[in-house]
Design a protein that fits this description.
Number of helices of chain A: 11
CATH superfamily of the largest domain in chain B: P-loop containing nucleotide triphosphate hydrolases
Distance between the termini of chain B: 43 Å
Shape of chain A: globular
CATH topology of the largest domain in chain B: Rossmann fold
Helix content of chain B: 25-40%
Oligomer: heterodimer
Mean pLDDT of chain A: 86
Largest sheet of chain B: 6 strands, mixed
Largest interface: A-B, 33 and 39 residues
Low-confidence stretches of chain A: 258-263
Number of helices of chain B: 8
Radius of gyration of chain B: 18 Å
Structural class of chain A: mainly alpha
Largest sheet of chain A: none
CATH architecture of the largest domain in chain B: 3-Layer(aba) Sandwich
Strand order of the largest sheet of chain B: 6-7-8-3-9-10
Radius of gyration of chain A: 19 Å
Low-confidence stretches of chain B: none
Strand content of chain A: under 5%
Shape of chain B: globular
Strand content of chain B: 25-35%
Chain lengths: 263, 238
């Protein structure tokens, strides 16, 4: 087997092992969207009227509307969580072990990204299974067609996490990321309300939502869950992923100083 | 043949010069101690040798491979023990070594045999199944040294590997690594403790970003103990 595949298997395996060791993290990652689905959505069902918009062909309950957004939420939190673990790895020194391996740095970072995305996808499927038990199910084929969409969305959000981790110098700064990245990305998107609804309130907010890559990731997932392809959403998500990856690689470039500054 | 060659390395953090025209060569199979007080520039030099940073000026060759031109070949020849512990505490010693072996493209039977041999060399085989968290400081360090040897590196770098260890563990590890040099591995051992340097070792004294002296430790020490010589050399003028 090539050194590339051996290292990919080892890095993804290590991420998975680490995840299994942190059972609370898995439960927290599952409870968060379920609270939104079972409590928040139930409360908002009456307040929000939804018209028929693609990919839906009939009127849908609000719970059904927010499922793709909550899938995105799981991936968003996971992307940030992996960024946190990268900063932690750097503080603990294990990042040095990774970065001094005789493989291209972009490949090593891609392996990290792939590991984080794989874990995100497992969590999304666990969430979709519980949602289905609750009665919110998708077309059966949708559970398969959503897989590539989840992979693309996970890579994009993981790349954002990677980018942030290359610029966050200390773990203490991480709370800021929650406030300035996760919440604006989530609320300024189509995860909880369709964009036309936002446009009714504010044209500016609508435009911001439309630019938000998270909106496109959610729409990509939404269409894929209904076995439909949204080319624009895919294009924007891939573009955002490419930009984040390029910036993260620049951030991790060894000619940039700042990985550690002790003499 | 030269195991490790450092030529004219200069490195700055903004206005602060961390290394200024540092050059030295270590022959293959030699034990070289890099002695310097805290803040001398040792860790910066290690970051450059391991390509965590790239040196804008100067040249580094590891077992004949230029680190800037052919970083992957150079890193493949390099074993590193960082100052900070880098074991995954939730994994067993063997799992830690397997992970590292995979990062170097080793897997299957080949990796297993190399891991056995490396653990055996550091007398760590009986502890292979133990979680790293359960090991004492000395054994953790030995596990890290064993890990750094899995891919049979030509050059082994150790950045103050005895920090935080008791006297017995410190002496044992210092001795182990001296024996590795006798087996043909080129060693660069950074420290600020003179009792870890043996008289026949090659010595590079680093102070305030520059090399103060280099040669055989016994020659540098001269008539007085190395400890006293080192203090005299690095004393800051009042």
């Amino acid at each position: 087997m090539s050194p590339y595949l051996i290292s990919l298997r080892a890095i993804v395996g290590r991420e998975a092992l680490r995840f299994i060791h942190q059972r609370e993290r898995f439960i927290a990652a599952l409870v968060r969207p379920l609270v939104w689905l079972l409590v928040f959505a139930a409360g908002f069902r009456a307040a929000l009227g939804l018209s028929i918009i693609p990919p839906y062909q009939t009127y849908i309950a609000y719970e059904t509307y927010i499922v793709p957004g909550l899938c995105g939420m799981i991936m968003l939190f996971n992307g940030m969580q992996s960024s946190l673990s990268l900063v932690y790895d750097r503080e603990m020194g294990s990042m040095k072990l990774l970065l001094t391996a005789p493989l291209p740095r972009w490949w090593l970072l891609f392996c990290k990204l792939a590991g984080a995305t794989a874990i995100s996808i497992l969590q999304v499927y666990a969430f979709l299974a519980i949602a289905a038990l609750y009665g919110i199910d998708m077309p059966p084929l949708g559970y398969i067609t959503v897989l590539p969409a989840l992979a693309v969305a996970g890579l994009m959000l993981g790349a954002l996490g990677l980018l942030l981790s290359s610029f966050i110098k200390q773990l203490e700064n991480f709370a800021g990321v929650m406030n300035f990245v996760i919440f604006p990305m989530f609320f300024l998107s189509s995860a909880l309300y369709p964009l036309w609804k936002m446009a009714e309130s504010s044209k500016l907010l609508h435009d911001i939502c439309a630019l938000n890559p998270f909106t496109h990731a959610v729409e990509l997932i939404r269409f894929a869950l209904y076995v439909q392809f949204n080319a624009a959403a895919l294009g924007w998500t891939l573009l955002a992923a490419a930009v984040f990856v390029a910036a993260a690689l620049w951030g991790y470039n060894p000619s940039r100083t700042g990985m550690s500054r002790r003499g | 043949m030269t195991g490790l060659s450092v030529k004219d390395i200069t490195y700055r953090y903004g206005a602060k010069t961390a290394l200024d025209g540092v050059s030295f060569d270590i022959p293959q199979g030699a034990f070289c101690a890099l002695l310097g007080p805290n803040g001398a520039g040792k860790s910066t030099l290690f970051s450059l040798l391991t390509r965590l940073f790239v040196a804008p000026v100067g040249q580094i060759d590891i077992a004949g491979h230029n680190l800037a031109r052919d970083p992957r070949a150079a890193l493949a020849k390099l074993g590193i023990v960082f100052q900070q512990p880098t074991l995954d505490l939730d994994l067993s010693v063997r799992q830690n070594l397997s992970y590292f072996a995979a990062l170097h493209g080793l897997s299957g039977r080949d990796a297993r045999m190399r891991i056995e041999a490396a653990l055996d060399r550091l007398d760590m085989l009986p502890r292979a199944q133990e979680k790293a968290r359960g090991l004492n400081g000395g054994h953790r360090r030995r596990a890290e040294i064993a890990r750094a040897l899995v891919h049979a590196p030509a050059v082994l770098l150790l950045d103050e590997p005895t920090v935080g260890l008791d006297a017995a563990a410190r002496a044992a590890i210092t001795e182990h690594v001296h024996h590795l040099a006798q087996d043909g591995t080129t060693i660069l051992w950074a420290t600020h403790l003179t009792d870890e340097v043996w008289p026949e070792d090659q010595l590079v004294v680093l102070h305030q970003a520059a090399i103060l002296a280099q040669g055989a430790a016994a020659d540098i020490a001269g008539e007085i103990p190395l400890h006293d010589r080192f203090l005299a050399m690095t004393a800051t003028p009042a």
